[in-house]
Every structure is written in structure tokens, then in C-alpha cells.
Write a structure and sequence with these properties.
single chain; about 260 residues; mainly alpha; Helix Hairpins; minor pseudopilin epsh fold; 2 domains; three-stranded antiparallel beta sheet; globular
Length: about 260
């Protein structure tokens, strides 16, 4: 009997040690991903340089980990230093030796030949990501004020309704694409979405106007932390929106 008791105690102890060493069922994937990101040398975004050409990568106003409340550092690093950089370099190749070298990115978007796949994809990717990274901030979130707030209330009834419409536009976009807040051709605010790297400056799309906020809903923008939960990513994105900069872009678009 004594031997049996000792044997049972040893089995229970061994099982207890093994169980404690295993990941608990309530651990989140985001925690695991954040640990991986913290252990990896992500580098400095200021060290990322575009190849020669008229369209250069704008410097980030924050570090890769500074938006961690909404987007993990590893996603930010890959998104900026791989995806955005790739669009910039390929755009410069697409315009090299053409009259487009002397045009602004906005001029290229508005005059886009939609059959020019390289220019459409890479020019759109450059313009879209420039807006995306510029309108995020570690101190973002909350709600806009002043003229932009009044315009939102006029167009949508409330800020919450704007959020609902942007979440719906991004959440229902099949496959890859973007959700947009734009100033339309009548000077009013509107919400919509586009596929792939298209944007509302391009001709003939389902939404037209000057973008003042874009939410990237390609999987590379959120999958490490949120996996297939795109609505959770969109909801978290509102915590890092720099509404002061969005308001500046609204004023500029209205003045055009």
C-alpha cells in the first residue's frame, strides 16, 4: 500500500509540473506575438531608405512599438519597412523616364490610367500608406473637435455613426482594400471603400473625393495580432487616429 501511495503521489506531482509548464488556454495570440516582437531587433524606422527617385519614404513620427495599444511592433515594422518601402521603390521604377517623374502623387492618382497595373498598384500603395501612417499617433484616439466635428455631425448625425459606417465599410470589403473618409466633390464628408490599393482620387471608382483618413484592411496590416478578427482591428485603430491631422487635411481639402 505504501508503494502504491508513493507511486500515485509521484504521478500527480509530475502531472502538476507538466501542466504548469504548458500555455494556459486563456493566453491570447497577441501576447505571444508581442513577446516575439520584443525579442526581435526591429531596428529604427529612420534607417529605412527609399531607392533613388522622386517619391521618398516619409519618416515616421513614432517608433514601431509606440502604437502597441492597437498595433503590435512587428506588424508596424513589416508594414512600413517592407510593404510601404516596396510600393515606394516600385513606384519610382514605374515613373522613371516618363513625364510622371515631375508630377505630384495626387496628380498621378487623379490622372491614373486604370489599365496601367504597375502604376495603379504601386502609386496607389504609396499614396494610401503615406496617408495611413501619417494619420496615426501614440497620442491619438478620442474624438475630433471644431469644424471637423461639426461636419461629421452634419454628414453622419454623430461621431459614433461615423465609426459605425467606417467599420462597416472596412469590415465588409471582400478581400484586401481600404475604408475611407473623404471630402467629396461637393465639399461634404462621405465614407466608402475601395479594393486592393485603389483610392478615391482615382477615376471611375465607387467613391470619389479627397481622402482625409484611410484604414488599411489588407491582412498584412493586422493579422499577427488579430488574425481573422478584422472588426477588432478596425475598432482598435480608432485609438491611434490623430484627429488633429485629419482636421488639417479636412481644411485643406475644403480649400481646394
Amino acid at each position: 500500500m505504501k508503494k502504491i501511495t508513493v507511486l500515485i503521489s509521484s504521478v500527480v506531482l509530475a502531472f502538476g509540473v507538466y501542466s504548469c509548464d504548458q500555455p494556459q488556454s486563456n493566453n491570447t495570440d497577441s501576447a505571444n506575438n508581442d513577446t516575439i516582437a520584443s525579442e526581435r531587433n526591429l531596428g529604427n524606422p529612420a534607417d529605412v531608405k527609399t531607392d533613388s527617385g522622386p517619391f521618398q519614404l516619409p519618416e515616421l513620427k513614432y517608433g514601431y512599438a509606440d502604437l502597441d495599444k492597437s498595433i503590435d511592433a512587428e506588424t508596424m515594422e513589416v508594414h512600413y519597412s517592407k510593404h510601404f518601402l516596396g510600393y515606394a521603390n516600385n513606384l519610382n521604377k514605374a515613373v522613371a523616364g516618363t513625364e510622371l517623374e515631375g508630377k505630384t502623387i495626387e496628380e498621378i492618382m487623379k490622372g491614373m490610367d486604370m489599365n496601367n497595373t504597375a502604376l495603379r498598384n504601386n502609386g496607389g500603395g504609396y499614396y494610401n500608406h503615406d496617408l495611413y501612417f501619417a494619420t496615426m499617433s501614440p497620442d491619438g484616439g478620442g474624438q475630433p473637435s471644431g469644424e471637423l466635428s461639426e461636419a461629421i455631425n452634419t454628414a453622419f448625425g454623430s461621431f459614433d455613426e461615423l465609426k459605425n459606417q467606417l467599420a462597416e465599410a472596412g469590415g465588409k470589403r471582400f478581400g484586401s482594400g481600404w475604408a475611407w473618409l473623404v471630402v467629396d466633390n461637393n465639399g461634404n464628408l462621405a465614407v466608402g471603400s475601395t479594393a486592393n490599393q485603389d483610392n478615391p482620387l482615382m477615376p471611375g471608382l465607387e467613391i470619389s473625393g479627397t481622402p482625409i483618413l484611410g484604414i488599411d484592411v489588407w491582412e498584412h496590416a493586422y493579422y499577427l495580432r488579430y488574425q481573422n478578427k478584422r472588426p477588432d482591428y478596425i475598432d482598435a485603430f480608432f485609438n491611434v487616429i490623430d484627429w488633429n491631422l485629419v482636421a488639417e487635411k479636412y481644411a485643406q481639402a475644403k480649400a481646394e
